[in-house]
What we know:
Blueprint: H1 5-18, E1 27-31, E2 38-43, E3 48-54, H2 59-74, E4 84-90, E5 93-99, H3 111-126, E6 138-140, E7 143-145, H4 153-168, H5 176-188, E8 199-201, E9 210-212, E10 218-220, E11 226-228, H6 231-237, H7 245-254, H8 265-268, H9 270-280, H10 285-293
Antiparallel strand pairs: 1-2, 2-3, 3-5, 4-5, 6-7, 8-11, 9-10
Helix pairs in contact: 3-7, 4-9, 9-10
Amino acid sequence: MVLSQPLFQTLVSAIKDISPHDFDIQSIVPVSGGDINRAYRIQTPSAAYFIKINDVPDANRMFLAESSGLALMRNVRGVRAPRTFTIGQAHGEAFLLMEWLAISNDGRNRDPAQELLGHMVARLHRHSSHCYGLDYDNFIGKLPQSNTVTMDWTTFFIRQRLQKQLDIAGHDIVDARLRKQFERLFDRLDSLYPSEPPSLLHGDLWGGNYLITDPGQPVLIDPAVYYGNREVDIAMTMLFGGFSDRFYAAYQEAYPLQPGWKDRIDLWNLYPLLVHLNLFGISYRGAVQRNLKKYV
C-alpha cells in the first residue's frame, strides 16, 4: 500500500465527510509535490483529489498556514488558488487534502497564460492593509517565517526577514564580516526605495509556485503570504526564471511599478537567497555577498 494503513483509513473518513457518496478510493498515484512533501493524486468514483503528506514535527502547522494562505489569496477577486478540504493527522503523519487541478504544461509559457498571470498577481498586490506583516506566522519552505505586524516596511524587512535568517545561519555560514555588511545595509535601507503601500504578497513567487490549468488559467500555489512591498514578489520572479516578458508587461499595464524598481531586484532577493542559504547550504553564500555588495 502506498499509504500507511492508519493514514489510509483516516483519509477514507475525511473524504466521506466531504462527499458522503465517495466511500471508495480507487487509486493513489504519486505525483510531483516539491522538495518538502510527498504528494499523490487520489481518485474516487466521483472526484479526484490532491494530497500532501509530511511527518516532520511542524507538518500540521505548515499545512494549516498553507491552507490559510490559499484562502486569503482566494478571497481576492480574480485570484485563483486551489481549494483545500481538510487537514488531518494519523500516527505522526500530517496531510493536506486539496482539489485536483488538471495541468497544461504546453500552455505554461504561452503569452495568453502569462498575460493572465501578470494581471492576477497585480490584482493580488492591489489588495492592501494598514500595516506590514500578518496576524499569524507561517513558513517559507520548511523554515518558520515571522510576520509580526509592523507599521513601516524598513523595520519589518530588517527584523522579520533579513535578521531572522541571519539568526538562523551559523557563524560558519555567515561570518562576522558579512554580518557587518548587513548592519551597514540596515543603516541605509530606508533611503534605497520609494514608499509603497502594503500589498498582499504571495511571498514565495518563483516559477514552481504557479500552475496553468488545461483551460489556460493560472493558479497560485504554495504561498508564504504576508503584507509587504510588492517589489519583493516581482524580484523573486526573476531569481530563478519561469516568467515571460509578457507576464511583466501585463503586470505593468495593470499596476505599474515605481521608477527604478529593476535597481532594487537584488536588494529584495537578499531574503530568498538567505532562505536558500539556510535550507541548502553554503553554495548560496556567494550570491548573497554579490547582492549585498551593490547596496553597501
